[in-house]
Structure formats: structure tokens, C-alpha cells
Fold Putative glutamine transport system permease protein GlnP.
Amino acid sequence: MQLKSSRWVGHIIYALIMILMIGAIYGAGKSINYNWHWDRLWPYVINTDMQDIRAQGDGTVELKGKQLVIELDNSDSPQIIKKYNQLLVSDGDLVFQGDTVAQLSQWRFGPIATGLWVTIKISFISLIFAVALGLVFGLMRVAKNTACRDLSLTYVELIRGTPLLVQIFIVYFFIGTVLDFDRFTAGVVALSVFTGAYVAEIVRAGIQAIPNGQMEAARSLGMNYGQAMLYIILPQAMKKTLPPLAGQFINLIKDSSLVSVISITDLTKAGREVVSGSFAPFEVWFTVAALYLVVTGSLSWGIQRLEKRLSASD
């Protein structure tokens, strides 16, 4: 009973702290005479405005049932419009190139939603390659071969010792020019290589945390080094490395905002563009922060579920 009441007290304290924080943000906006305009933001997330349908050239309008046909003067094939909600011309009207002839009510993703998708895509692809790189170089860090250990150590120290922003510039302007990378590929390569170095150290620490007796027991059962590492050591190491890996994957998603410097329209760059068009900087950046929080929170929740499932199987 006492435990239950202490839990409720904790929840109430948390709620009060959150209310105070929201009140502080609201008060800060009032103190600088800022007028909140959340309504300006919605079209940049999902746009439900009527979409203009324009004539592709000069011609004459013909209505054939529910179809709008424009017989173009400079083309043998007419412009046929099968889907529209509002008609702005009549049968026999003369239209010129660029004229709005009809409107279509159709929702579409705005720049913020599109930027969110780019962030998710570049982060997911980079995560896959980063795990692969980290696993390879993590195994090289604990290998008996001196050349492998030296190569992996050089990779880890070189990447961890230089800023990600500098690496993005090097990959895009130098390596990307030599290998003809587009912006998206250069962003994926830079994020993968950068995160892979940290994953390699996490994998190395996880392997070294397993008692030496596990490897010796596996070898005594007739397994070679590779089999023992694959079937005995790595499964145990992965369980130990899940929490730090979750933190590194979350950092990868946040670090992906830096690819905007090479003109990839991710969530951060989309936010900057929307600010200049909507004149609602606070609303935009709070929304961008909330979307990053949703993505990182979902990843964190998924890894926690996986961690619980793996611990239950022990």
C-alpha cells in the first residue's frame, strides 16, 4: 500500500514539473510578445489545399462527359484531364499555356513530412551499414592477427577523433567526386562510417566482457575459433551491448541532421525552409524537435522490448 502511494506521489510530482516547464515556455513567449500561429504550420506537414491543373499549351476546351479535353494547337495529342473537383472553364473556351482550367482536392505531404521521411530513410540505411562495419571492425579489434588489430584501431581512432561535419565534407567533396556519389549516398557513407567506429568499440567491449572460459569450453567441444565466436560468444555479447547500441543508434538519428549541409532536404533543412516561408520559427522548431523525439523514442522502445525478450529467454 505504501509503495502504491509513493508511486502516485512520484507521478504527481512529475506532472507538476511538466506543467511548470510548459508554463515557463508559454511565459517566455509572452515576455517577448510572440504570437503563436500553429495554424500556419499544418499545410507544411500535410497540404489539403486545392491543387491547380494548368493547360500544357494553347488550345480549345472540349467537355466529353466527365473528361476535360484540351485540343492543343501545337500538338497532335490533346491534354486529357480525367480527375478534377472544380471546373474553371467552359466548353469551347480558348485557353493559353499555364492557364488554370480546373482544381483537384487532393492532400499531399508537405516539406516537413517529406523531410521526416528522408531522415528516417537515411538513418535506417546508415544504421544497417554501421552495424555491419561495427561488427567487422569489432571482431578485428579482438583478433589474434596483428595487422587486423592495427587496421581496426586506426579506423576507430581516426573516425572518433575527427568531427562528423568534417567527415561529411570530405566524403561529399573529395570521395564523392572521385566515386561519383550523389548527395544521399555521400550522406549515408559518412553517417555509416562515423557510427560504425563507435559500434566497433561497443562490440569489442561486449566480446571482452564474456569470460574467457566460454571460448575455452566451446573449443573443448570441437568448435573452431569462428564457430565459437559465432554461436557462443557473439550471442552473449549482443545481449550486453544492446543498451549502448540503442544510445548510439539514437545519436545516429540526431546526427543525421548534419547532412543538411550538403543540401539533403532532411527534417532539419525542411524546418529551415519552412521557417523562412511561414514566419513561425518557434512552432516549426518545436514540431521538428517533437518529430525527432517520436522517431528516437520509437527506436528506444523497440530496443527495450527486444532486450526484455532476450533476457526472458535466458
Q: What stands out?
A: The mean pLDDT is 85.
